[in-house]
Amino acid sequence: MLLAIDISNTNIKLGLYNGAAMEHHWVISTARQRTTDEYAMVLNDLLRHADYQLTGISDIIMSSVVPPLTPVFQDLALRYCGKEALVITHQLDLGLKLLVDNPWEVGSDRLVTALAAYHVYGGPAIVIAFSTATTFDVISADGDFLGGAIAPGLMISAEALSSAASQLYRVNLTPPPSALGKNTIQNMQSGIIFGHVGLVQGLVQRLCQEIPGVSNPADVRIIAHGGLAQLMAPIIPEVQFVNQFLPIEGLRLAYHRLKAQT
User: Fold this and answer.
1) What are the two backbone dihedrals, phi and then psi, of residue 187, each rounded to the nearest 5 degrees?
2) Third-level CATH fold of 103-250
3) What is the dihedral of CA 87, 93, 94, 99, to 10 degrees?
4) Which one from 6, 93, 101, 109 is the annotated catalytic residue?
5) Continuous segment of H or E residues that includes residue 163
6) If phi over 0 gives left and psi between -120 and 50 gives alpha, with beta otherwise, what is residue 247?
7) Model-level pTM?
8) Residues lower than pLDDT 50 in the chain
């Protein structure tokens, strides 16, 4: 059994694979203060609930954008599973060219989601992650990583608005009845949510225009994932697919490619 672990700033996604088939998947909160032993107990409980054991894991692959937790999960893999975790970096041959100025700056999560998006949907494509930040990853028709954009996420925007303006407060992140708000809550929800829709639509339009070889924006696949994708995708017509498994599916694909090279 292969355990794929994607560590992001908000959540940690885990996928348990038997070959190409995902047997189970889980999402837990990212807690930087947790120790190796604490995370091991969480993982052990999840596996036991699915009738598996830590010792039954044959290999582990992971991506991480939370540097303090990378060694924690590497230690977990060694001490509790008896395996050395394979950690995704820009230096590995994942089958996609990084056509950017500084490849080492590209988060490993973006690498594996780009890999999965191209494998599942083809290219050209734009992958939008609605998470702590809202990121846009652009993939060419040949599967190359071209770059993208990073914007503040919905939660960051909402918290900044309520904390910086003394007469405003936190509101639920749900779309209001219309963009024309009739009270303070609706005004804030309109600005935060529909404003973010406008940000996404504007960036998608610009990015499509800058993808080499694209003459018709309709040829670009728009794929969303992340904790807030279920909220945002239904109100953004440009989004064609929602796939919450992109990061861990990309890890599975990366694992089999890298193992084939050894």
Assistant:
1) -60, -45
2) Nucleotidyltransferase; domain 5 (3.30.420)
3) 110
4) 109
5) helix 154-164
6) alpha
7) 0.90
8) none
**For the chain, first and last CA: distance in Å?**
19
d(CA 155, CA 133): 8
Burial class (CB in 10 A: 0-12, 13-18, 19+), 17: buried
Structure tokens at 115: 């890999």
Residue 109 annotated as catalytic: yes
pLDDT tens-digit readout, 200-223? 999 999 999 999 999 999 999 999
- Asked if the 2-87 domain carries CATH number 3.30.420.40, the reply is yes
Q: Do domains 2-87 and 103-250 have the same CATH topology?
A: yes
Nearest-angstrom CA–CA distance, 69 and 75:
10
Alpha-carbon dihedral 205, 208, 214, 219, rounded to 10 degrees: -80
| Unique residue bearing structure tokens 């973010």 | 196
How many CB atoms sit inside 10 A of residue 149's CB? 18
User: Starting at the edge strand that comes first in sequence, how are the strands of the sheet with 125-130 ordered?
Assistant: 145-152, 133-139, 125-130, 221-225, 241-242
